[in-house]
Amino acid sequence: MPTDNAAAWDQAAAAYLADVQFPTDVAHYGPDIGTEADFRLLGDLKGKRVLELGCGAAQNSVVFAKQGAIAIGVDRSGEMLAAARRLADREEVRVELREGDMADLAFVRADSVDVVFSANAFGFVDDLSRVFRQVHRVLRTGAPLVFSLSHPAYHLIDGDHPDQPLLVRRSYFATGPIEYRRYGAAFTEYHHPIGDLYTALVRASFSVDTLLEPRPSAGGPRSRHWQDAFQYVPRTLVVRARKEGN
Fold this sequence. Notes:
This protein has 246 residues and is α/β, with parallel strands linked by helices. The protein has a single domain, classed as Rossmann fold (3-Layer(aba) Sandwich). The chain has six helices and nine strands. The termini are far apart.
């Protein structure tokens, strides 16, 4: 059975936050790649309602609030949201934080959100179609959904053993759960081929206008999660899709 990712993040929160430092001056998309300063997918956020799904400790939501946005963060982990509240207080910004499933957006009015954002959280969701339908409901027509997740090609290899050659160890077409341990907790991630993501977005009435497979940032320093495999296989997939009419 897939593990409970919310419980896993509760268990891992302290160790994860002590280990991983994210900026609070620019939105990030993933390890060892460019930031919003490089990709420029969100535009001017001043005065806009920005909903972050799977916000974790809300570093990105804090960035949005600093830029003048009305920032709302949703996450299933109570421990991560507690850290988010502490961060918002420390940075002296207001972020509305909600504990719940990324597809449970009943608290948001239809057609009331200007941007939906998610960084490396959708990979923990099996049924992304359900999330996309809810995102479509709350976004204004023409507004963007911008998200990143583990690149499906990266799931094919095992980069945890740098002394061994890179080999394909998993089928690209295998969409079952991927289980692993990090920070002493058991997580379940899901493999979403690019074609499946595109089809799910189109069926939810989105048009995809940007798809990025970023190369690693030049130079360093590298994150502690850096692997030489990042130089050969894209680690992160970044997508921007816009809501079409109902």
